[in-house]
## 1
Amino acid sequence: MMIRPAMAGDEDRIWAIIEPVLRAGETYALPHDWSRDEALAFWLGAPHSAYIAGDGGRMVGTYYLQPNQRGGGDHVANCGYIVAGDAIGRGVARAMCLHSLDEARAKGFRAMQFNSVVASNSRAVALWQALGFATVGTVPGAFRHPALGDVDALVMHRTL
Amino acid sequence: MMIRPAMAGDEDRIWAIIEPVLRAGETYALPHDWSRDEALAFWLGAPHSAYIAGDGGRMVGTYYLQPNQRGGGDHVANCGYIVAGDAIGRGVARAMCLHSLDEARAKGFRAMQFNSVVASNSRAVALWQALGFATVGTVPGAFRHPALGDVDALVMHRTL
């Protein structure tokens, strides 16, 4: 798997990966009805650094890395990852997270924090735990799942 | 105490209240070196609704209210409050928080969440607890306090 910074020209492929996840609204607390331009402005725009993952010439995932807070909180990184629907279960998220941990270290961050991991997204929760993240907070009912109703949002954290 | 939405013309008074707190960098994970325009764009700009608190014709505090997340997370409100240095200890933060809880209910929010309450800010932590907030998360070392070094950041939450 090859992971590199996103570049001009990647927009169509990134949109193809993230649009179904935004529309489904099951895992990200982001607007379901964002246009292509709104979504790409968020995913690729400051303060995000965006990356894409390719496998055999095909793009299978994308993630962004940013400071989780500013000022006295800017030593903690934050990321969001999305895997192409037909590439789920092939280690793409794991590879992207490991890549992001290295990138975050290289940028001088000392920890990584996820603010709102949807508790019903058990595949993600298990993967982050396997990669060293601890659940340091549970916000009751903070996410409205389209099928499950109110579900908890987890705060997950690890040092780098 | 009178609390009302911030209006054009309030900028100088808001800046006078928030500048010392930003510069001190002890309680907010925001840039210490923001200019007046940068700080006011944040405090007063979308998606914030900003308010000011006055006491006897003098402005003693300001707060903002916003959705804490978007999409499936936009039923949870988030606020930030700053009290003028010489008005601390007179119930301004309590009055603003109670006002914000009413405002959030009126806007249809179902809960309120603070993402990064600096644990060393014991006055704030105690006040939020007294007003019904529970600590639902503790992020280790997530805030670099200028005097104390790395301190924990608390996630606090209450339903409305």
## 2
Amino acid sequence: MATTLHYLGPKGSFTHQAALEASRLIDDAGECVAEPNVTAIFDAVGRREGWGVIAWENNVEGYVVPNLDALIDADDVVGFARIGIDISFDALVKPNHTKLTTICAHPHGLAQCTGFIADRDLAVRPTASNAAACRDITDDQVALAPSVCADIYGLDVLARSVQDFSGGRTEFLVLAPRDDARRQLGAIRAQGAVQANGERDFESIVAFILLNTGPGVLANLLDVLRYAGLNMTSFISRPIKGNDGTYSFIATFDAAPWQPQFKAALSQVLAHGDWVKTLAVYPRRERPSPPVSAWMLPQGGVHLDDTTTSWNDDPETDRELLWK
Amino acid sequence: MATTLHYLGPKGSFTHQAALEASRLIDDAGECVAEPNVTAIFDAVGRREGWGVIAWENNVEGYVVPNLDALIDADDVVGFARIGIDISFDALVKPNHTKLTTICAHPHGLAQCTGFIADRDLAVRPTASNAAACRDITDDQVALAPSVCADIYGLDVLARSVQDFSGGRTEFLVLAPRDDARRQLGAIRAQGAVQANGERDFESIVAFILLNTGPGVLANLLDVLRYAGLNMTSFISRPIKGNDGTYSFIATFDAAPWQPQFKAALSQVLAHGDWVKTLAVYPRRERPSPPVSAWMLPQGGVHLDDTTTSWNDDPETDRELLWK
């Protein structure tokens, strides 16, 4: 039987679009069901009523931290797939609309489409969500919403991709109880002899809490990961929920925890007395990995170049580092 | 002459509240001026038309990543003060209001006060901002907004702190051109012989970009900081703007870059060929720093305890780490 996918509603949200994509890509994934909040999604997965889809990271806004905190704290829930969705707004209207006077969307949607709104000289009306703008649309209104809303709410597309900034992208995780996730990952491992060693490439997100505190504990942790030859693509620290001043570390690796070197590194961290939890394992995504060249650097700052003689008495270095 | 503080408007936003607090705490800080977006704030500071106030980190949502990216990329702008504001909503009404039927706020404000709204049985009306709800309030409406809005918009307080969750807090940075910031920090250093060594304690936020890539480069960076005995309280990686797959690292330290050990560590990083920029230096905040105890740990996960014999064949470890 196909597995229900629980996502953050209302219908027609970007998370809904991610859930539909997950339903298309993942064997055994079925109907998508809107939930009122993220807690309800974790609860549904915890009660084994299906899988969940949550927003994880956006290339402009960074991590969706409340969802990250919830996954760290969830019992028996793990990510097993990662889905990317381009953040793009379509301008939608009723099929027999009259003269258009007003444009409606969540304030975030309105803020992301200022050029389109100014060009059309429309009055602006904020709504509780982009989907609510579609649901409650009147004959003289334009709604800004994800493209999936045209079908859902029976609307016509006035214009596609009307956002000011193209290139916005949000990544979502598909969550399951741990035994379900293991079965899904096992099936992928069984299919895919893409690598020389017979393993398909995976990525993992792992949370660490260092129970032995003091200077250098983080560097010690990273030493273990370095000696294992693991490629880390993202790393953040987060206060432990409800305990200001205590931290967890969340890292994304180009490896699966069952690969011998990774497994040995995790064993070493455990033997050191620290807390470890795998938050997600999913097939590796294609990612660019260009070298960093000087022309890519932000404005200001300091780095070694042909003209550097000594930083110590250099006014520019002093200005950028405030080190005097 | 007092220095103008540029903040993200409209008047009565939480950033406005932070700007008023900064104006009260910092010598030479004067009038607060609302700007339409964060770019306008950086531009005003860059043109030396005053200082800026930007949201930096929230204890629930994490870093305000677009502001972090903007500060990394800004030329000659640095933070020199950090201001914390409790995220609290007051229910505001017109002085001679009629029967109250409707409650207005930005969708985020509405979502954070669901208990109050349900208790009073009010119809919900989203607005573009909490301040807009106050500005456009009618006789039968309640506006949810920061407490500073009562004065600004001439409204009465129906109820204080009506948010569902108490304990939300956002930290703001006060930004200045680098020479201005140095003067301000110099004045604080001159006043404060609070420490045995005559230095007042400071914190710093520093951005690093590793120009030599390859496995272990991050661990190498952290080694240098560890050997300098620096206490790091926050650490994240961020893609370099416009260059997917390239990363900067942003770390917060309990030290000032002019302190000899920190300065030596930064010199070593520079000598290694990497890029460094100080994003902020400000007086140290009081922070709890409790040891991490087992009862503070999230649900699930694995750590060493009295019952651990071997992780290798332990089904629970296997379940939490997905390492088989």
## 3
Amino acid sequence: MCRWLAYTGTPVLLETILYRPEHSLIDQSLHARMGVETTNGDGFGVGWYGPDDVESPAVVRDVGPAWSNRNLREIAGHVRSPMFFAHIRASTGTAVQQTNCHPFRHGRWMWMHNGGITDFHRMRRDLALAVDPELFLDMEGSTDSEMMFYLALTFGLEEDPPGAVARMAGMVERTGQAYGIDFPLQMTLAVTDGARLWGFRYSSQGESRSLFYSTRVDTLRQLHPDLAFLRGVSDETRLIVSEPLGDLPGAWNAVPESSYGVVQPGDDEMLHFTPQAA
Amino acid sequence: MCRWLAYTGTPVLLETILYRPEHSLIDQSLHARMGVETTNGDGFGVGWYGPDDVESPAVVRDVGPAWSNRNLREIAGHVRSPMFFAHIRASTGTAVQQTNCHPFRHGRWMWMHNGGITDFHRMRRDLALAVDPELFLDMEGSTDSEMMFYLALTFGLEEDPPGAVARMAGMVERTGQAYGIDFPLQMTLAVTDGARLWGFRYSSQGESRSLFYSTRVDTLRQLHPDLAFLRGVSDETRLIVSEPLGDLPGAWNAVPESSYGVVQPGDDEMLHFTPQAA
Amino acid sequence: MCRWLAYTGTPVLLETILYRPEHSLIDQSLHARMGVETTNGDGFGVGWYGPDDVESPAVVRDVGPAWSNRNLREIAGHVRSPMFFAHIRASTGTAVQQTNCHPFRHGRWMWMHNGGITDFHRMRRDLALAVDPELFLDMEGSTDSEMMFYLALTFGLEEDPPGAVARMAGMVERTGQAYGIDFPLQMTLAVTDGARLWGFRYSSQGESRSLFYSTRVDTLRQLHPDLAFLRGVSDETRLIVSEPLGDLPGAWNAVPESSYGVVQPGDDEMLHFTPQAA
Amino acid sequence: MCRWLAYTGTPVLLETILYRPEHSLIDQSLHARMGVETTNGDGFGVGWYGPDDVESPAVVRDVGPAWSNRNLREIAGHVRSPMFFAHIRASTGTAVQQTNCHPFRHGRWMWMHNGGITDFHRMRRDLALAVDPELFLDMEGSTDSEMMFYLALTFGLEEDPPGAVARMAGMVERTGQAYGIDFPLQMTLAVTDGARLWGFRYSSQGESRSLFYSTRVDTLRQLHPDLAFLRGVSDETRLIVSEPLGDLPGAWNAVPESSYGVVQPGDDEMLHFTPQAA
């Protein structure tokens, strides 16, 4: 399917996270270890929050593999951000085009996804009808991932992200069941409004794609007092990733099945996730 | 908007028609004379019927300008066809991506369009709901042109092309009127099943984009007995174009307002076009 | 040929200069007024100096027209820079590919060009032989513009920019004359190391492409006391452009024939330009 | 590195060879088994000889992976040819651009390559100087593969292909040795003029990339009397490939080290290959 990475914390050059680690996300575009597909070469995207006076994040997306994209490397080497998403895509059939690349954006919000809606092709029209008519007008692509975003927006993402995602998941599962599909939904999701970051791991089958979050930086510093990078970033700095970057012992923790985490000012949280009726 | 060209007759290398004439379609991608926009650089497409044992036409489409596309030139210089479409696009806002390029194909059928649905953004959901649910699943892009194709397919394009196009136009106009839009539809259209070719010219306002058809080849031969090209093609050979190619006196005839023509084995026809209730 | 723009001064979002002015550079990609070609749709590039700790500028280039490129708009809306170049290309035959797009970069230096070497195809090998063998290895494209950059680097660009450009021009003219070419060189050039900016206007024929520099900001403020933009930028802020942006009276001054200007801390200068023996 | 395929024989739709076999070339773009890299996603090309009245082959090349390219699939499903090349690229650093994709063409001739010149970056200028000045003007890309083609053209490819390739290889090895490079050359090559087909396997080290040729069709028919495909093609039909397509026992034979084969009307040949002084 796909691989993704979400960063929040001390502003860093994007390349610090995207290119420098061993087994970086860009390396995963050629050689993912934990994905269904080892190659994620059907487009990519990066979204970042920039200067203080710009409301919405920048989203740069392109078709073609991330590993050979020179513009991505240029941007990553010159843009510094306190909150950014990066995604590499392995299409399961929908067109390889910019409007199908993640992250998706709506106002201040960004969304990216790994997984899929089973038999999405058949359910697409029913789900489209459930999207708020005003929001429907802004959909540009043809992926299940974008549809999930617009369903969540319809169900109140901007007011209550976990609730809206739960209602989206409930709608997808109910629609899938009407088509006789046993396990309609498979997802790891990242959502942000630029201030807080939510990461979800869920599948109808209870066998969700991998998802990891990084250990608190103060704990890591005690484990690895010699690592310069850790001295340069705040305790609040956190990563959520499809599969671990690098090989730092103690650095990565699996998000449990049917759970979501919130990274926010103050204490972060990990909570249980259950789909709900819309 | 866009420019397009439809050819049917003696099999020729595509470049004979696409590149060689003065003021060719490729030249029009940089310097159209009669269009709303002089530049048509937002993608292109060519669709052709090939060897006898292949049921559906080939459709090659790409983003970027036709004028600098080397692959288009290679194909045009090596592929021979008795029936082909070519289209150059000027986007009016929808994404520049392959799935938004013309011609569109469904089975044996091809469709291309110049013009637009006024305020399509607002009407998009209503029109999508009118598309047959089975057909809806095959829509990949976000243009009004593709939507018109799928509405016409819904309304029986494969059995009765003029009737289906009339019902599509009626549906678009009725929907537009519900939104208070005075002139919802502007279109020149080409449709083919590989055997017959239909060209439509219509607009709600009665001020349609230009459309021309070529004079019968036997008549042209009498006017221009010295032209080698005319000796190499059959009497049945015919072109329909957004704007004339070359400067051959007597070669081009305007399609009248609110009309459609049929190019077919035997006598061709020119008939009146009126939108109908779906 | 092409159109370009160089900005130096108070850090601004790139879009302030690239998109917002009437008749902006992006608008010129579709509708240039003063160029040989009105359409500049064969690729584009933007190069900017970013955070203090990054030595070399970012250079983002892509094929396809600037007017429809969404990534360019995203970057322009979120990146702030005190010194940037932007270029839109109209190819005169060489391949439309990223390595042929401007600006070109070498270490801290950027270079962009409008114009051409007459019959470059014939002179290409001779000029390539004159490039320093070490530098030759870094050439990636096939344009005359990149060759001129590498010749200037060979002739000392990093120590003496005006002298190196003069020796490059002399080498091109001498080589052209050996091939019996009357007017070998036509150029407007922008060169920078991130601190200073040089703009050159020259042609063998003495009929060079247009080039303009902006009036001092303090003078403009007196002419237009009501313009908010002018209150937000320093007196040192300066633009050099192929053709004027906007319609502000008194804002633009033609660079004289066979001249070059230096924008730098302290007083700027305008000096005579003559090709020299290498 | 790369993977390639050359077909000559009974005219077939390209897809018959490119897409239909198990472990087809398109499948190898994602999952090569014998290459240094398993992913070959940095561009592709297909070249074919078409209608009788067209002198030179069509060459369609594009950046991005072959596996998701819709235009390649369209062409392959509608173009029939008696002689075609297909190539999928894994860049070892040179730019991913159309002019670096194989096959390369010169007049009637096509050339494609897997392997590389060790430290090509350092030898590039010396080799460029050895190319005939007239031919040099037609080089557009920056790969070692194109350089090898133009060196072979310089050394008489059109009169004596095996001799010219031997002299090219000799020149590369001699130049490499001057730079202290132990094993300068690694290559499998396909060359054709549309009538005959040459396949070369050689490396300075004597450990060349894999190369296979298909067994004579009459022999295969005896081994597999039930295979419909074999009844539809002539005895003369032959494939040369980087790695075997499908799993047909007895179908594939390794080209020996330091050898080249000629597929031609009449008996084919397999001969020893040794680099020669230019």
